[in-house]
TrEMBL record:
Residues 228-339 form the Asparaginase/glutaminase C-terminal domain. This is L-asparaginase 2. One of its GO terms (molecular function) is asparaginase activity. Substrate binds at residues 75, 108-109. It comes from Acetobacter fabarum. The active site is at 29 (o-isoaspartyl threonine intermediate), 29, 108. Transmembrane segments: none annotated. The gene is ansB. Residues 20-210 form the L-asparaginase N-terminal domain.
Length: 343
């Protein structure tokens, strides 16, 4: 030891210098258990968030973790009540400076919907990352631990700030607006067909390849309810039955999962015209899975007062319309502008 020279690394790796990551567990395959690779008949949501963290060696070197169980459900049962619970918990954690970032574990089926909902209502620049798994925790080559590790790594990285809600799985970072589950079983199920990936996690780095996208911040409805918005899936031989039924049911909005560039049959278009006359907001999206749904191409949106979903798939268009209605937006022109605000 040389007098007067301090070891330069002495304070660098102090435990309390690590970012504080709050893990909110909701369930899904990442919490699932079964003994076979096929994962047939497994129970999504059998493992708690706390057990999940225990199975990720080295994660404690990335961040100081605190785990809370918000729900323990397969994400086909995800619903707006859990969304409100998540949103309120995240807002409180940031407002009280309890955490520097949030990681949410979630089933993959509706991960894009939860991510997109939160992206529209959380205005903080601190990272919010969703992750999950395609194989249950007890399967051979379970992907959950690696995904959890990478999610925490991105959450703890200052580059992730100001980018809204992100989804991290299988080495890829994707935006809440762009990401969609596109394969029933593959590990690389998540893609962003219209916006592309935001970045990658590799053993050496967290690497963003895009600039942060613009975002709009919408208010959470105080009564924690969202308007009824139904999705109608278009197909050859399409009639107007489901559209008329949605109007009769009291839907305030209908999202069409249209053919091609958001098209419907002439019969269904007549149903859409009736829906508009009844004051129902109609958004045209597409069942195709990729590509923009553009205004006034084969359907005269101006004439009928329709909204084109642009890059948003039907399930995300539904959430955005629900949030816009909750924020008092009812004019098609205003709703159209809000659909384009995140592009
Ligand atoms: N891979 C998964 O997470 C699918 C399991 C379940 N359907 C869910 O979404 O929670």
């Amino acid at each position: 030891h040389t007098a007067g020279v301090e070891a330069p690394t002495a304070t660098v790796h102090k435990q309390d210098a690590l970012p504080r990551v709050l893990v909110l567990a909701t369930g899904g395959t990442i919490s699932g258990k079964i003994n076979t690779r096929s994962a047939i008949g497994y129970d999504a949501g059998a493992v708690t968030g706390q057990q999940l963290i225990a199975g990720v060696p080295g994660v404690e070197k990335l961040a100081q973790l605190q785990v809370e169980q918000i729900s323990n459900i397969a994400s086909q049962n995800m619903n707006s009540q859990v969304w409100f619970k998540l949103a309120e918990r995240i807002r409180k954690a940031f407002a009280n400076n309890e955490a520097d970032a949030i990681v949410i574990t979630h089933g993959t089926d509706t991960m894009e919907e939860t991510a997109f909902f939160l992206d529209n209502v959380i205005g903080d620049s601190r990272p919010v990352i969703l992750t999950g798994a395609m194989r249950p925790s007890t399967a051979i080559s379970a992907d959950g631990p690696a995904n959890m590790y990478e999610a925490v790594k991105v959450a703890a990285d200052p580059q992730a700030r100001g980018r809204g809600v992100l989804v991290v799985l299988n080495d890829v970072i994707q935006s809440a607006r762009g990401v969609s589950k596109m394969h029933t079983t593959e590990l690389q199920t998540f893609h962003s067909p219209n916006l592309g990936p935001s970045g990658y996690v590799d053993p050496a780095s967290v690497r963003f390849i895009t600039a942060a996208q613009p975002r709009q911040l919408l208010a959470l409805p105080a009564d924690h309810t969202l308007a009824q918005v139904q999705i109608v899936y278009a197909h050859a031989d399409m009639d107007a039955q489901q559209i008329d039924d949605a109007v009769k049911d009291g839907a305030r909005g209908i999202v069409i999962a249209g053919m091609g560039d958001g098209n419907v049959s002439d019969t269904a278009l007549a149903g859409i015209e009736r829906a508009r006359k009844a004051g129902v907001i109609v958004v045209r999206s597409t069942r195709v899975g990729s590509g923009m749904t553009n205004r006034n191409v084969e359907v005269d949106d101006d004439r009928y007062g329709l909204i084109a979903s642009m890059d948003l798939n039907p399930q995300k268009a539904r959430i955005l319309l629900q949030l816009l209605l909750a924020n008092g937006k009812t004019k098609p022109e205003d709703i159209q502008l809000a659909f384009q605000a995140g592009l």
